[in-house]
Structures are given as C-alpha cells and as structure tokens.
Amino acid sequence: MHIRELKPEDLELIAAVHHKAWLDTYSSGVLPQKVINFMTLDKWRKSWEKNLCPCNQDFHLCAETPRGRITAFASFGANLDPANCREYPGRLLRIYVLREFQGQGIGRTLIKNGISWLMSQQLNAMTVHVVEANISACRYYEHLGGTIIYRCNVDRLGYSIGELTYGWPDISSLI
Ligand SMILES: CC(C)(COP(=O)(O)OP(=O)(O)OC[C@H]1O[C@@H](n2cnc3c(N)ncnc32)[C@H](O)[C@@H]1OP(=O)(O)O)[C@@H](O)C(=O)NCCC(=O)NCCS
After folding, report:
1. Nearest C-alpha to atom 13 of ligand 1 is from which residue?
2. Is residue 158, in this structure, part of any structural domain at all?
3. Which ligand 1 atom is the nearest neighbour of the CA of 96?
4. What pLDDT sits at residue 43?
5. How far apart are CA 112 and CA 74, in angstroms?
6. Full residue range of the structural domain in which residue 42 is found
7. Considering only CA atoms, which residue is closest to atom 10 of ligand 1?
8. pLDDT tens across 27-83, in order?
9. CATH, residue 24
10. Residue 69 lies in a domain
C-alpha cells in the first residue's frame, strides 16, 4: 500500500471515499440517520475543496493501491481548541480506512506518517475528537495509548451527541 499526500486533483476521489467511509462508520446506529443524511457527497466535496486548497496548513494523507484506488485517509494539524491546545498542540483531525481494508496495518502506517509530520512542526502532543458511540474507534485510540482528557455533548441538527477527546502527551511513543 502506497502512502502519499493528497493533492487538489484528488478532490473527486477523496470526496467519494470520505462519503463512503462516513456511511460505513456511522450508519449502524452510531449517529442519527438525519445527521448521516445531512452530509451528502456534495457537502464532502465542498469540505475537501477547503482542505486541499493551498491556504490550508493541515497535512492530508492517503493510502492507495498500486492501481491508484484510495483506500484510507487521515489529516493532521494544529490543535485550535483553547481548552487544551497548550498541552496538546497537535491534532489528529480524522482517520478513515475503508471497511474491506481495515485490520491490515494501514491505519497504523497513516498515524506514523502523520506523527512524523506533527513532530517536524514541533507539535509533539496531540488530541483527537471521537463520537462516544463509535466504540470501535474509542477502543482503537485506547489501544494506541490515548487517554480520555475531555467529554462533552455537541449539537448536531438538534441532536445531542456525546463526544470524547483523547490525548497523547508524547506522540513519539506512536512511531
Ligand atoms: C479505526 C481505524 C482507523 C483503524 O485502522 P486499521 O487500519 O483498521 O488499524 P490497523 O490495522 O492499523 O491496526 C493498528 C493496531 O490497532 C489495533 N486495532 C485496530 N482496530 C482496533 C479496534 N477497533 N480496537 C482496538 N484495537 C484495534 C490492531 O490490532 C493493531 O494492533 P497492533 O499494531 O498493536 O498489532 C479503522 O478501523 C477505521 O477506519 N474505522 C472506521 C472509521 C473510524 O471510526 N475512524 C475514526 C473516526 S474518529
């Protein structure tokens, strides 16, 4: 599996992969159906237009097969949350591996690449936000040594969604 940085030309592909990963991850009762339906392919396209624009300072990676099929992606950047950005200046913004490619070490490889980038930016501690009902992802972050540093409820289209923040005070342990 080849790991590379995403570029503006990947817009259509990555929007479609994100839409699929979104449906696969949250449809089995993890998020209300209305919230899931709200994020259409077009909304993901608009979101990635912003992510991939040259003014965006985050680091966006993907994994692809030898034939150029994107199977996973992850984004890393500065933590802008005033509540914990001093202790945890970096953030894992998102990580998704398409279902049929999970459990093959792709997530771990994306994390390692992202951690190298964060450390090159002197962002040596990081957080990630995760929907509390996404139990599998919570267990994954715990497996990687993350601990819960914050819990809150966020409003999504009138639904109150439990969200956890996991933190790693020293990301060098993840490499
Ligand atoms: C969570 C996710 C990113 C993990 O990626 P992956 O490629 O399947 O994971 P890897 O194969 O790299 O696994 C790395 C390690 O984590 C472990 N692991 C994988 N999934 C796990 C889980 N759900 N719970 C606990 N441990 C897990 C593996 O056993 C492996 O352990 P080891 O390296 O110590 O032997 C992937 O399953 C995914 O995309 N899930 C759906 C999307 C999602 O929920 N994203 C997070 C949104 S916040």
Report:
1. 105
2. no
3. 39
4. 98
5. 11
6. 2-123
7. 105
8. 999 999 999 999 999 999 999 999 999 999 999 999 999 999 999 999 999 999 999
9. 3.40.630.30
10. yes
